[in-house]
Amino acid sequence: MIYDKYKLSVKxxxxxxxxxxxxxxxxxDNDISKFKANLDTYEYESVQYDFLKLNNLDTAGAFIxxxxxxxxxxxxxxxxxxxxxxxxxxxxxxxxxxxxxxxxDKKRRWYDILTxxxxxxxxxxxxxxxxxxxxxxxxxxLMHFIFRPQKVRWKSVVALIEEIGVNAVPIVxxxxxxxxxxxxxxxxxxxAAFGASIFxxxxxxxxxLRELAPIIVAVLVAGRSNSSFTAxxxxxxxxxxxxxxxxxxLDAYETxxxxxxxxxxxALPILTFLGMMSGIFSGMLIAWMTMDISPILFLTRLNxxxxxxxxxxxxxxxxxxxIVIAIIGCRQGxxxxxxxxxxxxxxxxxxxxxxxxxxALNAIFAILFYQMGx
Amino acid sequence: xxxxxxxxxxxxTTKFGRKFVHKDLNxxxxxxxxxxxxxxxxxxxxxxxxxxLGLIEPQCGExxxxxxxxxxxxRNDIRELNNSIGVLFQGGALFSSLTIxxxxxxxxxxxxxxxxxLLRGIASxxxxxxxxxxxxxxxxPSELSGGMRKRAGLARALALDPKLLFLDExxxxxxxxxxxxxxxxxxxxxxxxxxxxxxxxxxLDSLLNTCDKVAVLINKQIAIIDSLHKVAQYDNPWVKExxxxxxxxxx
Lengths: 374, 251
Hints:
The structure holds two protein chains of two kinds.
Chain A: E1 6-11, E2 14-23, H1 30-33, H2 35-39, E3 46-57, H3 59-66, E4 78-82, H4 86-98, H5 112-147, H6 154-164, H7 169-192, H8 200-238, H9 241-248, H10 252-291, H11 295-305, H12 307-334, H13 340-372
Parallel strand pairs in A: 2-3, 3-4
Antiparallel strand pairs in A: 1-2
Helix pairs in contact in A: 3-4, 5-10, 5-12, 6-10, 7-8, 7-10, 8-10, 8-12, 8-13, 10-12, 12-13
Chain B: E1 7-16, E2 19-29, E3 34-38, H1 45-52, E4 60-65, E5 68-69, H2 75-83, E6 85-88, H3 100-111, H4 116-129, H5 146-157, E7 164-168, H6 176-193, E8 196-200, H7 204-210, E9 213-218, E10 221-226, H8 228-233, H9 237-244
Parallel strand pairs in B: 3-8, 3-9, 6-7, 7-8
Antiparallel strand pairs in B: 1-2, 1-4, 4-5, 9-10
């Protein structure tokens, strides 16, 4: 049969393939790609290619021509080429030597979703246990350093405090200012209806000091610093720097994880304190502007109604948040494997897990403080 | 009619800050031959390769492909040109988030419109052409050894059947047996696919086995491009040291 680019005929169980024109990757069209399908109608035991009218051939074209050999796992049928120059024959030889039965395609099966749910559950518990184990290891190192404080890498701790703490001050204060203002506006509207607008001071004071400032700062640090811990340590892992550290005799825990955790523990309470001040300040401004509650009245009321207790309740949570954030960030960083993709997914996981952990921990603290009656 | 070289770098001057890397450098590769570039560490071999690939813009001079300057080409022609050039970077430079199959198919998918089944068949052929089995197709680059990664990188470089192939230290980090096998592979691909190869290498065995021509990069210029035998006789202390030193194969 004659097609545009080739002619097929069978003679004495030999398939004659008469090829015309250019057979390169750019020329492959419908006509050529149906080559294999067209062969199915023929009965033959060997193939003879005629390259007389062929003027260009590359590996892709040769690959399609080689499909005529009925490749199966055991063998290929015999073949010869006539009227061909040396280059095309060696190319055909190379290609035919390189083909085999093509590997099976991977297909998604219907029960994939079940497998994924199972894997996900398994993974959740695995991550939980590993994080707890990592936390335990942190406390071991902490004990070690408590007796030898001169061994702590203070230089890197200070540098990290600058990165985690000082550099985050503007964003933390701005955010807490906005949140304080929103709470104050809500309080004004609701409480004015009862003629009890002075209680907005209680609302702003308690909510900002006890909950909002610590949570907002922790979430911000989780997004800002925790992701950078994972990315830094993960990139080091990918370039075998962690292995180099180990071989030199340095512990990745003492050199990388501990300074970060310590810097977080120091920076987070300070940031939270600044956030609290900013939130209270904005509440005070709103109160003054909308309800004419003077700053002096505001502060007096704050002192009477809220007291120092709420301040301490808010602040005491932050070192725990700090440990959790730093530990999750560093653990995910160390868990990065060779690929870029794992670096990306570990960074995502690290932020998600640490925000989750901060909120869960905060809930536990709320129950604890309720039971304690503070 | 004058025959042009597949790649011809003329009067290349490259500066990083105030430091000259190349000063009025000339280099060419002859059609159908393997040209090796040697030079000390930091002499600017990789910079030269990157300049020819258009990754670094030289301060002066131009790179001609078959007599056409890259600078003067239009957008479509540059694409055409890039399709006719294959590159194997030192570490393979495989995309680590893709399987080997998808790595090889990146250029094929971009520039052709073929069915998935056919593409997979072609990729499987290419991977076997470079001496890997088709099981490697579904693995990720991080799951392969260094030598396998180089082979996979070569398969990707050959995906569109380039006429010109650049290799950056193809045998670095391979054991002698694997390095020899890689040399043989390059030689057989060169003959069967009619390739012109430019190869940056430090491997003396590899130079001896594969290269038709050797270019020596010293003092910011290509001092000589000639057959290995003639280059080894070249009167320059560095060249003498390089070819007649303790690790030489010419004694």
